[in-house]
Amino acid sequence: GPTWLLRGEPLPHQWQDNRSASWVPFDEGPAPHRHELAMLTALQDEEAVARARIPVEKIAGPVLLLSATDDGSWPSSLYCGMVRDKLAEVAHPWPVVWRNYANAGHSILFPFVPTTQTTYAHPVSGRISTGGGEPSANARADIDSWQQAQHFLRDALTRHSSNKETS
After folding, report:
1. Residue 144 and residue 154: Cα distance in Å, rounded?
2. I want to staple 73 with a disulfide (CB 3.0 to 4.6 A). Which of 25, 101, 106, 139 is the partner?
3. How many domains does the chain have?
4. Residue 4 lies inside a defined structural domain of this protein
């Protein structure tokens, strides 16, 4: 079913009417199970992906992308690369910052929270699943992403304030 709504109406998603999407890699893969493997099957139907694509080229501001190379929930590095490439293609006039954390998993959170629990029982299937990542890489991603987000927001606010003063 729909994950996102706009004005109460469901937005298209990449699994909707998708000819290649399959849960088999998740269901039949080894434990801990990785949702990312199923998400990759959905990307094979280019028409379904195009229907569900968020028009990032309409973003009127700076963009911060955070991803992890061992994201077990979804292919965040691949998705962030798609966003970066589209913004470059349209010569997006705002800064685009992408931090892709090596060996980190899906749970990029705040710094100094525990990072050792990388597996869990999926709430629907009950299968032992993983968000991926190594605890030390997750901890490094937590600290750096927090610092990057603060810097990014501070810089964006400074630029916005400067633009208001000169216009």
Report:
1. 15
2. 106
3. 1
4. no
